[in-house]
Amino acid sequence: MRITNEFASVMVEIDSNGNSHRLKIQDCRTGRVIYLDALQLESLTRQSDQIFREFLQYPFGPEKEN
Questions:
Q1: Distance CA 28, CA 2 (A)
Q2: Count of domains observed in the chain
Q3: pLDDT of 1-19, one tens digit each?
Q4: Sign of the dihedral through C-alpha 17, 11, 60, 36
């Protein structure tokens, strides 16, 4: 399934190649992939909106210190 808005586009599918089912999320722009198992997905439901706002403040990781 492709999920897209004006800021991002990702492909989401169930991957069953590991020890158990997991979610495969691929960034359509960069091709980067992450696999999340049930425990990781459940932990996302326990996060506040604030944590996601903080993630989006630096979407490509922390800025390098000089």
A1: 9
A2: 1
A3: 999 999 899 999 999 998 8
A4: negative
